[in-house]
């Protein structure tokens, strides 16, 4: 197990946007943290009320947005326009090229979300978009598949051999993770005991195939688990 601590991440403060970068991104370059397997970006963003990212392009990248607090308004040149709330998972396959914007839907309240980039399995596909809600009851005390290559079990589909799980765990609760190959575990909030180490909000850990993952809640929290080829 290799731990990536929250306070070791890259950080950028643009006033209206405060962003932590788990892996190299924009002006933050760390050759020791360029990604993990197909997982290329995990940005934890906090966007002030009334602000956001204006229309900008993406190409040949799978982009997952995961709202933690507040509401995010999405628009793109494919004709999609939706508001994301906590529990929603959005997947955008940029493929041959897409133009989109992301704004804080509130003029007053902060938006807190994760933006995740995954390198695609196939390049040059037709751009597409998908958004689904995963209620708390489906994730409490268990792992809920929220993204997968074939869209299994009602998850959003993704152009990569990857399974992404979300789980909400109470203090003292011990839940065995689903089978994984290479695994990246990201603590969204709360505090978890992982193989005897305490991981807090923003901390992450990488695992090799067949390596055991023992997770127990120390303080109620939310965890994402990436199963990667």
UniProtKB/TrEMBL annotation:
Residues 9-118 form the Pirin N-terminal domain. Its cofactor is Fe cation. It holds the Pfam family Pirin. The keyword Coiled coil does not apply. Signal peptide: none annotated. Fe cation binds at residues 56, 58, 100, 102. Keywords: Iron, Metal-binding. It comes from the Bacteria. GO terms for molecular function: metal ion binding. Belongs to the pirin family. This is Pirin family protein. It comes from Vreelandella boliviensis LC1.
């Amino acid at each position: 197990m290799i731990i990536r601590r929250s306070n070791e991440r890259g950080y950028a403060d643009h006033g209206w946007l405060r962003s932590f970068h788990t892996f190299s991104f924009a002006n933050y370059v760390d050759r020791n943290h360029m990604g993990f397997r197909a997982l290329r970006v995990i940005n934890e963003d906090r966007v002030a009320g009334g602000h956001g990212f204006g229309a900008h392009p993406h190409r040949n990248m799978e982009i997952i947005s995961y709202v933690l607090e507040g509401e995010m308004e999405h628009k793109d040149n494919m004709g999609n326009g939706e508001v994301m709330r906590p529990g929603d998972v959005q997947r955008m396959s940029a493929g041959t090229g897409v133009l989109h914007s992301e704004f804080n839907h509130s003029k007053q309240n902060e938006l807190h979300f994760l933006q995740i980039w995954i390198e695609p399995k196939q390049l040059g596909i037709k751009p597409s978009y998908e958004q689904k809600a995963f209620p708390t009851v489906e994730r409490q005390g268990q792992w809920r598949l929220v993204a997968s290559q074939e869209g299994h079990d009602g998850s959003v589909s993704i152009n990569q051999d990857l399974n992404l799980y979300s789980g909400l765990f109470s203090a003292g609760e011990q839940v065995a993770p689903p089978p994984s190959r290479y695994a990246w575990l990201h603590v969204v909030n709360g505090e978890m005991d992982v193989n005897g180490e305490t991981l807090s909000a923003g901390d992450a850990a990488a695992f090799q195939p067949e390596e055991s993952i023992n997770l127990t809640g120390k303080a109620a929290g939310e965890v994402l688990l990436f199963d990667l080829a």
